[in-house]
Design goal:
364 residues; alpha/beta; Aspartate Aminotransferase, domain 2; Aspartate Aminotransferase, domain 1; seven-stranded mixed β-sheet; 13 helices; 14% strand; globular; binds pyridoxal-5'-phosphate
């Protein structure tokens, strides 16, 4: 039996009868830009996240870029973030002319090491961008205290954690601005690209809208350099249908993770949930010294698996000139030992058992 990382076909079969007529209705309505579904989705997503403002945009990358621009990030500024993430977390800092400062991660949660964040603050630091990696909320309270003490902005990269909870708030809603992505593999996903920026701050919300819309407050009058970054009507239709299922889907991910945890205990290092929030398992990621052997055995058995992330950002060629001398041992060791297993709300119990069997045989 072949087992995919993420079973989008099964998800489509489940949602087809609801989504197809709604998409056809939007096609016939011909309001393709800024249409009623985009507005409704922004309101529904903001209500879900418990914030005043939801500003949709073209991708998670744009959400980060626009958020960083909205806080005025520019040349000479520094942003403290994690090297163990998707490149967009840091490339967007560079796009603003600023410098990402990578600090090492906690070996168990894979999230930012809070003590190292504190040690990395300089007079140039403008913001901290924590990533709730693999769906696990970063313990944000100490980060927020640091931000308040030093006058920094807290921008959450919630691309992998939409629907997770932390301190009674939804992921992305605790900091000054939260950014998420609707890339097809994310917990809430579109049938293409999309992104969302959330905030409770009225002034930031206004600035975010201006930046996402060509830097224009009044049509054809452009105040600042902005972007054409929009969610389209068709994706909004799909996201509205899927938002209603997000909690159910995330609960299923958590149940699958529990099942993996039970079956893989003592076989590999199973993911550590630090209990500071509700982990929604965007990825289920194990650690093992025999990672490469496990990966080969799974691949040979027709089970998809993936290494997120094989090359930490400070080791990427694009950062060679600026970060070539940086060494972050926990991140580097994690990148050599991590392996993400299939996880999707559609994964069947028999499939979970099969994945675990192959892993047990590989390490035996
Ligand atoms: C997916 C992702 C992004 C970028 O989102 P896109 O919609 O693909 O542009 C940014 N940060 C993290 C942590 C991600 O996982």
């Amino acid at each position: 039996m072949n087992i995919p990382m993420l079973d989008l076909k099964a998800e489509y079969a489940l949602l087809k009868d609801e989504i197809e007529p709604a998409v056809c209705a939007a096609l016939a309505a011909c309001q393709y830009i800024g249409g009623p579904n985009v507005k409704a989705f922004e309101a529904e997503a903001a209500a879900y996240a418990g914030v005043k403002h939801g500003i949709s945009c073209a991708s998670g990358t744009d959400a980060l870029l626009i958020a960083l621009r909205a806080i005025g990030l520019g040349p000479g500024d520094e942003v403290i973030t994690t090297p163990f993430t998707f490149v967009a977390t840091a490339s967007t800092v560079v796009m603003c002319g600023a410098k990402p400062v990578f600090v090492d991660i906690d070996p168990r949660t894979f999230n930012l090491d809070l003590e190292q964040v504190a040690a990395a603050i300089t007079p140039r630091t403008k913001a901290i961008v924590p990533v709730h990696l693999f769906g696990q909320p970063v313990h944000l309270a100490p980060l927020k205290a640091l931000c308040e003490k030093h006058g920094l902005k807290l921008i959450e990269d919630a691309a992998q954690s939409f629907g997770a909870d932390y301190a009674g708030r939804k992921s992305g809603a605790y900091g000054d601005i939260g950014c998420t992505s609707f890339y097809p593999s994310k917990n809430l996903s579109a049938f293409g690209d999309g992104g969302l920026i959330i905030t409770d701050d009225d002034a930031l919300a206004a600035e975010l809208r201006v930046l996402a819309s060509h830097g224009s407050r009044v049509r054809y009058h452009h105040h600042v350099l902005g972007y054409n970054s929009r969610l389209d009507e068709i994706q909004a239709v799909i996201l509205r249908a899927k938002l209603k299922r997000l909690d159910g889907f995330n609960n299923r991910r958590i149940a699958i993770a529990d099942s993996y945890n039970r079956q893989l205990a003592g076989v590999v290092e199973t993911p550590y949930a630090d209990g500071h929030g509700r982990h929604v398992y965007h990825q289920y990621t194990i650690l093992s010294d025999r990672r490469d052997a496990i990966q080969k055995a799974l691949t040979d058995a027709g089970v998809s698996c993936a290494v997120y992330y094989p090359v930490p950002l400070h080791r990427q060629e694009m950062f060679a000139t600026t970060h070539g001398d940086v060494t972050l041992p926990v991140t580097e060791r994690t990148a050599q030992r991590c392996l993400s297993l299939p996880i999707s709300p559609m994964l069947q119990d028999a499939q979970i058992e099969r994945v675990c069997e192959v892993i047990k045989q590989a390490v035996a």
